[in-house]
Amino acid sequence: xxxxxxxxxxxxxxxxxxxxxxxxxxxxxRSTDRMFVILLWVQWIIGTFATIFLSPLTWIGAASHPHVxxxxxxxxxxxxxLFPSYLALRHPGARLTRHAIAVAQMLxxxxxxxxxxxxxxxxxxIFGSLAFLAFYRDWSVVVTATxxxxxxHMIRGIFWPLSxxxxxxxxxxxxxxxxxxxxxxxxxxxxxxFKGQRELADSAVRQEQLEASFQRTEMVVExxxxxxxxxxxxxxxxxRAKSDFLANMSHEIRTPLTAILGYxxxxxxxxxxxxDGLERVKGIDTIxxxxxxxxxxxxxxxxxxxxxAGKMTVESVESxxxxxxxxVDSLMRPRATNKGVELTICMQTPVPESILTDPTRLRQxxxxxxxNAVKFTSSGAVTISVRCESRSEGQRLVIDVEDTGPGMxxxxxxxxxxxxSQADASVTRKFGGTGxxxxxxxxxxxxxxxxxxxxxxxxxxxxxxxxxxxxxxxxGTTMVDALQVVDATPVDLLPVSAIMLxxxxxxxxxxxxxxxxxxxxxxxxxxxxxxxxxxxxxxxxIDKATSDGCAYDLLLTDMQMPxxxxxxxxRTLREKGSRLAIIALTAHAMAEDEERCHTAGCDGxxxxxxxxTSLLRICALWMSRPSSGRTRKPINRAA
Amino acid sequence: MIRVPARVLVYSFIWLCLIACGTLSLAAxxxxxGASSNAGPxxxxxxxxxxxxRDSTVVLFLHPRCPCSRxxxxxxxxxxxxxPAPLRxxxxxxxxxxxxxxxxxxxxxxxxxxxxxxxxxxxxEGKEAERFGIRTSGHVLLYSPMxxxxxxxxxxxxxxxxxxNAGIDAVRRFVSGRTLPTSEAAVFGCPILHAEEACGTRExxxxxxxxxxx
Lengths: 639, 214
Prior knowledge:
The complex is a heterodimer. By secondary structure, chain A is an alpha/beta fold. In chain A, about 60% of the residues lie in helices and about 15% in strands. Chain A has helices at about 1-10, 15-55, 70-90, 95-115, 125-135, 140-160, 160-165, 175-270, 275, 280-310, 320-340, 360-375, 410-415, 425-430, 435-445, 490-495, 510-525, 535-545, 565-575, 590-600, 610-625; strands at about 55-60, 65, 315-320, 340-345, 350, 355, 380-390, 395-405, 450-460, 460-470, 480, 505-510, 530, 555-560, 580-585, 605, 635-639. In chain A, helix 1 (about 1-10) runs parallel beside helix 8, helix 3 runs antiparallel to helix 4 and helix 8 (about 175-270) packs antiparallel against helix 10 (about 280-310). Chain B has six helices and six strands. In chain B, a hairpin with a 5-residue loop joins strand 4 and strand 5.
């Protein structure tokens, strides 16, 4: 019993499954309605033309009139087409619509048979129409169509038996035999309808299960997302806490280091081995070296933390490329010479004099690789080769740093760029270092759109590291093929002993040690230095100096001070329209601190512990510029 | 379930009634026989077709433009194709006076002319039909070799419809020399003459095509 089976199939189904089934059936009925509208119109048009062609006129002698069949095809055909079309358009999917279509379609069969003169072939229209009606998957539609056929045969059989049975007199029940042949097809169509319905029902149940599964999955995803959101918030909180910790630790360690390193420098400068003794000189050097090592470790840890937190940013400013190499050369050459290692920088191809890059980071990468090369090479040479390469992705700047050091095997090379790892443990013992240098260099290079890799290495023969960066030549720049042609900025290239400051500097700093140390360096370089213990005092002193006609040329301010800090001081000065050059001094070394200083109105930025050279250079730079020509961007930083 | 307004049900009922009327009208028209004949029991005197039939003779009266008579010719073609006995077939085709010959040169005439052993006669003004008392296209008369009328009527079940019917059964039996179950049946076709014309007397001009019946 297909109907019973269908009902029992749906008895266990959910309301949603029943709704889906109903929706799909409705879609099916509507689309079938539309199909029959087209069919009915095609039948009407073809039927009318066929009738006009087959029996256009009826004759009485020489007189003629349009044949009754023509009227029949136009008028009766129109009736059979228009009303079902109206129902299909206004009430698509309604039960009445499909039953009206069934009646119309079967009567179209009768009409076509009639106007074609009872051609046997047109009888197939009945069976074809029944099959089309089974598209509805509604057995009752097939029943309606069958009843129309049976009624047609019954009426004709009773009143005009010749028209259907070919004999003048026939049994009144002979129409049942004809209808029976139609019923045979109906049986097959019923089976098809029930099968179709069953498939629709199964499909609806499957769809419902799919939706339920999807909803469950969505719910799980929502729960998981909420959990992840909480976990992410916790992670962010932890990250913030870590950043705060690092910033504070940086401040807490750098502040005393400033004093230690600074005073060690002063002691070293003033120490006379003949007068003070060799042990005293060695002791001072030990303090300086240990302090610098500690500073390097802190800087490396801060850099890797910033990179891993995604807070490291690189800039793209016009920079003189040869200057970067000259700086590296000037810093590395003494160390190399002391070890008996020859340091060479060669340009394999002409390079642009000015490029758009982050010079600080490029210098840092280059210093790192060159420092490593010098450190690991006991004899021989370190060669820095520079060249431009044209590739499909564009122009590239390729710098090879090659040494004649111990080299590495493949296993050691594989560990190179992992943070806190060196070629082997003995390296740390023998050469020191945090093992962060190469990892930082590679990550910085990646941030700049390039990479740092080990080009080749051979145990006992040396290694070659390659810096590969996009090369963006500055507009209008010229090509240079040797370092000496570069017109370096005088201040950048001057030895620290040659830097002279001429002017008045106000130092705002609350720490007595740093007041003494910084003012010592500045005074020694020739500047007139006044000291303020906090921002409020500094502000008052600036106002007074301005009103007295002896304005300061530079404000060097610590950013963390009591009463009024450096940020508030810079902001207040800028709000008052002051164009005084302001250099921020801070023990915080995170990227956001630099940005914060700039936002407050500072022109330059120097981190503690104070590097004497960098401090004097940045002071000289800003004091040498007329205040009207100052720009606020980019911020200058003393590394 | 989509419910339709009650007025649509009323429209549907009216629609069904109109369809029923149309269908029944069409069926009634199709099954309305033409005017019956006044054919005499024997070969009419003065017929220009033959003086007196000496073989079994089939006479078919046609209006050359009657669409209903195409079924008649097709039915006869099937029945006469198995003729075992000598048989004479005369096709009398109506033609109005004053019209050109082309008027009657229709596809129906060509099909009728291709009937086995057929001779086609153009019956101007339908005078020969009048002589035989025939008023409807598709009328078939069967005469015995003695000139006696054994069947008078149509050979289709309704207008333009082919199919088993008493008339064609009679023709098949006639050509095979068997006893006829019926001597008359309804004729479905266009009127050859107006009723008033059928009552009048006119001179019959008979022209012939193909094998003469004489």
